[in-house]
Amino acid sequence: MPFFKSFSEKAGPPDVFAAHRELYRLWSEMSQVLMNGHSPLSPAERELILAFAAGIAGCRFVYVAHAQVAYEWGIEEGLIEQLVAGFEAAPVDPRLRALLAFVRKLVLRPNELSQADADAVFAQGWDERALHDTIAVAARAAFMQRLVEGYGFTAWTKEMAREHAKKRVKLGYVNLYPHLAQAPAGETH
């Protein structure tokens, strides 16, 4: 049950976005560019990274929601659960594993990151843009975790998340929320 009495029992981020359109219109535009814009990483890989970061951080809401988006983009069903449950044993390409190892350390032990961690990513053929996008996606996961846990939202079921994921893949991060796509700049509440 959300901590805010103005929200229904089934509330989630879309309700926060609707209540604070000016702020979250900008957030959704940034998210669209970050998650679906030009990048060395595919949208599927970025959603996998986001879900993985949320999963290892213990945020069920963001983990379930974005794992379903990754699967909708074509990531093999169940891979993210395998990565979260047993990172070393999960069947993942060595190039992607290097990025995920960086994310894992960034989420769980950020003060221990070093040049060697970045160099391990670069050694797998990724460039600085790929590492930047990976870091930004992990940061987006952390923001969303704070938002959903701060509001006391209950994680969606896999079925609800799957339906939302289909819409997100089809419409993107801005058009998924029509009230955000139409919010004029400078609007206040």
What is the compact description of this entry?
68% of the residues lie in helices and 0% in strands. With 189 residues, it is mainly alpha-helical.
3D structure, described in words:
With 189 residues, the protein is mainly α. Helix content is 68%, strand content 0%. 34% of the residues are buried. Helix 3 runs parallel beside helix 6, helix 6 packs antiparallel against helix 7 and helix 6 packs across helix 8. The mean pLDDT is 92. It is globular, with a radius of gyration of 17 Å. The protein has one domain: AhpD-like (Up-down Bundle), CATH 1.20.1290.
* Number of H- or I-type helical stretches: 10
As a percent range, the share of strand residues is under 5%
Q: Mean pLDDT, nearest integer?
A: 92
CATH fold topology: AhpD-like
Q: Which residue ranges are poorly predicted, with pLDDT under 50 across at least 5 consecutive positions?
A: none
Task: Label the structural class.
Answer: mainly alpha
Query: Per the principal axes of the C-alpha atoms, what is the gross shape?
Result: globular
Question: Can you write the helix and strand succession as a string?
Answer: HHHHHHHHHH
CATH architecture: Up-down Bundle
How many domains, in number, for the residues? 1
Secondary structure: helix percent: 55-70%
CATH superfamily: AhpD-like
The Cα radius of gyration reads 17 Å
In whole angstroms, how far apart are the ends?
24 Å
- Identify the CATH class: Mainly Alpha
Q: What is the β-strand count? A: 0
**Quick one: biggest sheet?**
none
Summarize the SSE layout with pairings.
Elements: H1 13-19, H2 21-36, H3 43-57, H4 60-73, H5 79-85, H6 94-108, H7 115-123, H8 128-151, H9 158-175, H10 178-181
